[in-house]
Design a protein that fits this description.
This protein is α+β, with helices and mostly antiparallel strands and 112 residues long. The chain has one domain. 24% of the residues lie in helices and 25% in strands. The protein contains four helices and six strands; from the N terminus they run ααβββαβαββ. The strands form three sheets. A two-stranded antiparallel ribbon has the order 1-2. The longest helix has 9 residues. The termini are far apart.
């Protein structure tokens, strides 16, 4: 039975991925010279993400897998991208007014 807070549509957006898929998506994140690429990378909007912070929204470096096609079956791995969790939330609601990006070694929200 689905609760009021958990709809089938939100379940589709919050699905889990197999470990190998998560690792392949991580490999698509931007490598930053001088940082260990196994630990630190940046998403497509320039925000820092930490490999071990996958699906952790309690840290500014947490990240999610954004599915630009909303279905892995349609476009495969090409549709999946690593995204800092706040940028991911903006992506879900199609917000184009701000973005989280790096400000030195921290992340900050910028108006665009």
């Amino acid at each position: 039975m689905t609760s009021q807070l958990e709809t089938p549509a939100s379940n589709a957006l919050e699905r889990s991925y197999e470990r190998d898929v998560v690792e392949r998506v991580w490999q698509g994140a931007q490598i930053i010279p001088g940082n260990d690429p196994a630990v630190w990378r940046k998403d497509e909007r320039g925000a820092w993400i930490h490999r071990m912070a996958y699906r952790n929204r309690n840290t500014e470096f947490g990240w999610e897998i954004a599915d630009s096609a909303y279905t892995l079956r349609s476009f495969g791995m090409a549709a999946l991208r690593p995204m800092q969790w706040q940028n991911y939330m903006d992506f879900l609601v199609a917000s184009r007014s701000s973005v989280v990006t790096a400000d030195g070694l921290r992340n900050a929200r910028r108006l665009i």
